[in-house]
From TrEMBL:
The gene is aroQ. Homododecamer. PANTHER family: CATABOLIC 3-DEHYDROQUINASE (PTHR21272). It comes from Rhizobium halophytocola. SUPFAM superfamilies: Type II 3-dehydroquinate dehydratase (SSF52304). The keyword Amino-acid biosynthesis applies. This is 3-dehydroquinate dehydratase. GO terms for molecular function: 3-dehydroquinate dehydratase activity. The record marks 21 as: Transition state stabilizer. Its EC number is 4.2.1.10. It catalyses: 3-dehydroquinate = 3-dehydroshikimate + H2O. The active site is at 26 (proton acceptor), 101 (proton donor).
Length: 149
């Protein structure tokens, strides 16, 4: 058993439909496959992996991470562009935060170009598809090791 604090990987609305929803944009990898890739990439670091369609639940999970977590990788999905409450919750987190998007939001319609989460994220990753999640896990491990926020 490790004494490392867990990495929180939080996913917002409709990501439970990965593999079925708009595969031309989001690919065919399922969320269960994403979770398995993240756990493998994390090695001995514990992973708390959640998906929710509820803004309230997502904020509660950020609060849990504030108390228990070493880093957050968050794919807030539509809440990226609408939730000041999520922004406020993430601002309280002392560790690194990676905002992750499966698609390149900047190549999409203008409504997808303004992220509230980016205002507090340590870094933003977008456009690598589902395979970018384990890349984000590797990146956040480095940010944690460097003590970055």
């Amino acid at each position: 058993m490790t004494d490392k604090k867990p990495l929180y990987i939080l996913n917002g609305p409709n990501l439970n439909r990965l593999g079925k929803r708009e595969p031309e944009i989001y690919g065919t990898t399922t969320l269960a496959e994403v979770e398995a890739m993240c756990r493998t990439a994390a090695g001995d670091r514990p992973v708390v992996f959640h998906q929710t369609n509820s803004e309230e639940r997502l904020i509660d999970l950020v609060h849990e991470a504030i108390d228990e977590g070493a880093g957050i990788i968050v794919n807030p999905a539509a809440f990226t562009f609408t939730s000041m409450a999520l922004l406020d919750a993430l601002k309280m987190f002392a560790g690194p935060i990676i905002e992750y998007h499966i698609s390149n939001i900047h190549r999409r319609e203008p409504i997808y170009h303004r992220s509230y989460v980016s205002m507090t994220a340590t870094t933003v990753m977008a456009g690598l598809g589902a395979l970018g999640y384990p890349v984000a896990v590797q990146a956040i491990e480095r940010l944690i090791a460097e003590g970055r926020r």
